[in-house]
Write a structure and sequence with these properties.
By secondary structure, the chain is an alpha/beta fold. It contains 15 helices and 19 strands. The strands form five sheets. Strands 2-1-3-4-5-6 form a six-stranded parallel sheet, with helices on both faces. Strands 15-16-17-19-18 form a five-stranded mixed barrel. Strands 7-10-11 form a three-stranded parallel sheet, sandwiched between helices. Strand 18 (about 425-435) and strand 19 form a beta hairpin. Helix 10 runs parallel beside helix 11. The longest helix has 26 residues, at about 360-385. It starts with 5 loop residues before the first helix and ends with a strand. The structure holds 5'-deoxyadenosine and iron/sulfur cluster. Iron/sulfur cluster (SF4) binds near residues 175, 176, 210 and 246.
């Protein structure tokens, strides 16, 4: 007779995450809540007692992806009626989406919004107590609720929210509708969280917000530059990053704080979206290509080596070939370290969805292909300049296929190397011997450094 081990009897959770860093970090919070309730994690949906979908709705394909994966669980739920299926994240906050979800997937047990995250534990308890369907979608954002129970899985990197929501209403974007208005966390809470993370051994801290430059403008009396200064003043060796900066608000005060602290990476994520002033205007971005290029110049006047990454949308309504070519031109001028490139996706309820001059799909596809090729060629060229140089890498893990450790340099470039001891979480100096596309290969030159 086969005995069950304690491990078999533990209740297990599986979280499936779509979208950005913000969502990945929220999944760490969901995991923390489930562990508090006595669940442990599993890799497989087949032996999970609760499956949580943390959804994204920024583009249509993210939604379709989630729909497909939720639908695929129908049989699993039939075979195991005790299985709990929960759907949370941005998609559930979309107007009318919970009705669509209810109709398409009547087997979903719990639906919770991004604004209801901290209630999730209570919702699971209600379900376990016998409630048939538990739905909690708050319409408006409340006060910031402090939560320090995240179960982090990204060591040696840690994400720290500094604010929630967005006030910008870029005309293509659904985020302000599903995440509410901007709310900043108090600086003392942020500083305490980072101190704790550094003491626990985390080596790279990323401050997160939809538009970090407007931190504190909701009445806190502390600006983003001041917050950055406070966090960078925390003792210990760690890297400090922040994202996302909005070009309409990015300013020299922040760059001056960067200059004061070598801990802050010389890397800025500054989404440009388009290189054409007409399109930027239609997108309601509230800056011009000239202002954007001036900001890059200002940044590089402080740090000639500074790298910039960006987000770009092609095929926005009304985008002509000339507009698109202005984007290509800007990409070459800035010489980005990397860029996330997207085809414009129509989102119900946004201003751009009602614009008449939508760009045909084949034109959008052609432009994204050309843009991706351009961005890749710039990245490849940059990789080649690394060969022969010595760079500091923060080791993040071990690549089983390559049988090598891997980590990133200050600018997010992946470097691979061999070592006969566990290097995860260490800073390592590598002499780069070879570059392959976006990856670097090197040898340790000075051993690890504390
Ligand atoms: N279509 C395509 N891309 C979008 N983004 C936001 N909304 C849309 C949309 N409707 C992109 C922007 C943003 C990034 C997070 O996602 O480039 O910076
Ligand atoms: Fe969306 Fe614009 Fe806010 Fe970014 S700044 S989340 S693109 S509305």
């Amino acid at each position: 007779m086969a005995y069950k081990t304690v491990k078999d009897m533990e209740k297990k959770y599986k979280i499936i995450t779509y979208g950005c860093q913000m969502n990945l970090h929220e999944s760490e919070k969901i995991a923390g809540i489930l562990r508090e309730l006595g669940y442990v994690d599993t890799d497989s949906v087949d032996d999970a007692d609760i499956i949580v979908f943390n959804t994204c709705c920024i583009r249509e394909n993210a939604e379709n992806h989630a729909f497909g994966n939720i639908g695929a669980l129908k049989q699993l739920k039939k075979n195991n009626p005790n299985l709990i299926i929960a759907v949370g994240g941005c998609m559930t906050q979309e107007k009318g989406k919970t009705d669509v979800l209810k109709e398409k997937f009547p087997f979903i047990d719990i639906m919770f919004g991004t604004l209801n995250l901290e209630e999730f534990g209570e919702l699971v308890k209600k379900k376990l107590a016998g409630k048939k369907k538990v739905i909690a979608i708050r319409e408006t954002e409340g006060e910031v609720v402090e939560f320090d129970g995240a179960y982090r899985t990204s060591y040696p990197n840690a994400w720290v929210n500094i604010m929630y929501g967005c006030n910008n209403f870029c005309s293509y974007c659904i985020v302000p509708y599903v995440r509410g208005r901007e709310r900043s966390r108090k600086p003392e809470h942020i500083v305490a969280e980072v101190k704790k993370l550094v003491a626990e051994g985390y080596k790279e801290i990323t401050l997160l917000g939809q538009n970090v430059n407007s931190y504190g403008t909701d009445g806190l009396g502390v600006s983003f530059a001041e917050l950055l200064d406070m966090v960078a003043s925390i003792e210990g060796k760690f890297r400090l990053r922040f994202m996302t900066s909005h070009p309409k608000d990015f300013n020299e005060d922040v760059v001056k704080v960067m200059q004061k602290h070598r801990k802050i990476l010389r890397l800025v994520h500054l989404p440009v979206q388009s290189g054409s002033n007409d399109i930027l205007k239609a997108m309601n971005r509230r800056y011009t290509r000239e202002k954007y290029l001036q900001e890059i110049e200002m940044l590089r006047s402080y740090f000639p080596e500074a790298e910039v990454t960006t987000d770009i949308i092609v095929g926005f309504p009304g985008e002509t070939e000339e507009d698109y070519l202005l984007t290509e031109d800007l990409v070459k001028r800035v010489n980005y370290a990397s860029a996330f490139t997207f085809i414009y996706s129509k989102r119900q309820g946004t201003r751009a969805a009602t614009m008449e001059n939508q760009v045909p799909e084949d034109v959008q596809k052609n432009r994204i292909m050309r843009l991706v090729e351009l961005v890749n060629s710039l990245t490849r060229k940059k990789s080649e300049t690394y060969v022969g140089r010595t760079v500091e890498i923060l080791c993040e893990g071990y690549d089983e296929k390559k049988k090598m450790y891997m980590g990133r340099d200050e600018f997010g470039r992946m470097g691979y190397f061999e070592s006969d001891k566990d290097e995860v979480g260490n800073f390592v100096w590598l002499k780069i011997t070879r570059a392959n596309g976006i990856s670097l290969y090197g040898e340790i030159v000075e051993g690890t450094q504390e």
